[in-house]
From TrEMBL:
Catalytic activity: 3-methyl-2-oxobutanoate + acetyl-CoA + H2O = (2S)-2-isopropylmalate + CoA + H(+)
Protein name per its UniProtKB record: 2-isopropylmalate synthase
Required co-factors: Mn(2+)
EC number: 2.3.3.13
Length: 514
């Protein structure tokens, strides 16, 4: 009988800490439901003490999720733990994840505390969290650079206080796989009461080793891995859920454990997270990249046609890649649309919301012959973008681009009900369009990123554009989709401007880089 490897997904918390990747409450609930369908064991929904918005998002996820454990992060402070406990009240199964830094540099430079004080805070935090739930997790932040003797002391103490999951984070992505695996083995062996807790790992990807470090830890006794969809996360990201899960699943001859995930939901969940956050998946990304199961070499193609296993170690269908999808079109009815959206995990709040989505679907169907699942995901995401703080709207866009002439654009937008028109020239149709919009909104923001990704194949495919704006220390992502890439770009820019001017900046008292 193989051990169970617990999958702890922190896309909604650590993933959201990627610059520009903040999610609304409703978006968090959509992703949480997708994770629940995948049978993820623990969903870390956020950091309730960070802001009122984060509190409400954790609360909404806790109320919506029935089959997965919902977790809230809290520093080792009474106010943080109480806030997390309050946010998680409605959860069928809840967990409080509390942490405090344990590396010498963090204790001295950040906390200004002595080691004994850090242990005191950790024990008190675990005991207070136990007032809200029996499921308490503790993390020694920056464990990868902490002294092993001190880790043994603090972890033994928090187990005695009631912590039942011990998470060992490589907070800054500093560890090497062999070293990190040995640390896990040593902690399990040296801590007298280690048998009373599950050891977990949370690895960052600063040196590209997050998955390797996580798997090395699993080989040395860790039975929970903290990870994110698409490897989203602070700085270079976190261990990628899909890579960890499929490595363990594919190499059953090597690992003495397996997850309980429905891996057929991986690709759908990946696309949803990419669509909501505006972080496209690179084509050569393992498992979920567009090229992950593509073969161009003649030798490879010949081998796969003769026997799939010559060049494929996994079946594409096992992670959710399939060509057997229901394709909707302009003749599809409202019921077929609603049924397919439900299968994709989208539930409408009422008839008005369904009617609006169906109207958008029909508009898109008039532009392109076949509507795929990815189109539907983008359609709903765009509906969410426009619903949130949309005081600027695109009304009309006219672009002229011809050989030998400088491209120019005329754009009309509606700002709080008042229409404004502006014109600009640029190096291309997109450049001219964005400059025309900027001439009206006057944000003064720097365009830090412009990315285009096709949602499906074909010349009539929707283009999904992501823009990143930076202004006065704020970073926001904007997304837009359309069969016309210039219009998609204008939508994305306006979406980012709406976010920039909304004033709803997430406040992190401490980002929780565990």
């Amino acid at each position: 009988m193989k051990d169970k490897l617990i999958i702890f997904d922190t896309t909604l918390r650590d993933g959201e800490q990627s610059p520009g990747a903040s999610m609304t409450r409703d978006e968090k609930v959509r992703i949480a439901r997708a994770l629940e369908r995948m049978k993820v064991d623990v969903i870390e929904a956020g950091f309730p003490a960070a802001s009122q918005g984060d509190f409400e998002a954790v609360q909404a996820v806790a109320d919506a999720i029935k089959d997965s454990t919902v977790c809230g992060l809290a520093r080792a402070l009474d106010k943080d733990i109480d806030r997390a406990g309050e946010a998680l009240k409605g959860a069928q199964s809840s967990r409080i994840h509390t942490f405090i830094a344990t590396s010498p540099i963090h204790m001295q430079k950040k906390l200004n505390m002595q080691p004994d004080q850090v242990i005191e805070y950790a024990v008190r935090a675990v005991k207070r969290a136990r007032q809200y739930t029996d499921n308490v997790e503790f993390s020694p932040e920056d464990a990868g650079r902490s002294e092993e003797d001190f880790l043994c002391r603090i972890l033994e103490a928090v187990i005695d206080a009631g912590a039942r999951t011990l998470n060992i984070p490589d907070t800054v992505g500093y560890s090497m796989p062999q070293q990190f695996g040995a640390t896990i083995a040593n902690l399990i062996q040296r801590i007298p009461n280690s048998d009373k807790a599950i050891f977990s790992v949370h690895c960052h990807n600063d040196l590209g080793l997050a998955v390797a470090n996580s798997l090395a830890a699993v080989m040395n006794g860790a039975r929970q891995v903290e990870c994110t969809i698409n490897g989203l996360g602070e700085r270079a990201g976190n261990a990628s859920l899909e890579e960890v899960v499929m490595a363990v699943r594919t190499r059953q001859d090597f690992f003495g454990c397996d997850t309980g995930l429905d891996t057929r939901e991986i690709v759908t969940c990946s696309k949803l997270v990419s669509s909501i956050t505006g972080f496209p998946v690179q084509p050569n990304k393992a498992i979920v990249g567009a090229n992950a199961f593509a073969h161009e070499s003649g030798i490879h193609q010949d081998g796969v046609l003769k026997n799939r296993e010559t060049y494929e170690i996994m079946r594409a269908e096992d992670v959710g890649w399939t060509t057997n999808r229901m394709v909707l079109g302009k003749h599809s009815g409202r019921n077929a649309f609603k049924t397919r959206m439900a299968e994709l995990g989208v539930d409408f709040a009422g008839e008005a919301e369904l009617n609006d989505a169906f109207f958008r679907f029909k508009q898109l169907a008039d532009k392109k012959h076949e509507i795929f699942d990815e189109d539907l995901q983008a359609l709903i995401s765009e509906q969410g973008f426009e619903a949130e703080d949309e005081h600027i709207k695109l009304v009309a866009l006219k672009v002229c681009s011809e050989t030998g002439e400088v491209p120019n654009a005329t754009v009309t937008i509606r700002v709080d009900g008042k229409e404004m028109t502006g014109c600009a020239q640029g190096g291309g149709a997109v450049d001219a369009s964005l400059k025309a919009i900027e001439s009206l909104v006057k944000t003064g923001a720097i365009l830090a990123l412009y990315s285009v990704n096709n949602i499906t194949n074909g010349t009539d495919a929707q283009g999904e554009v992501t823009v990143r704006l930076e202004h006065a220390g704020r970073i926001v992502n904007g997304s837009g989709a359309d069969t016309d890439i210039v219009i998609a770009s204008a939508k994305a820019y306006i979406n980012a401007v709406n976010k920039l001017q909304s004033g709803n900046q997430r406040q992190h008292p401490q980002k929780g880089d565990v």
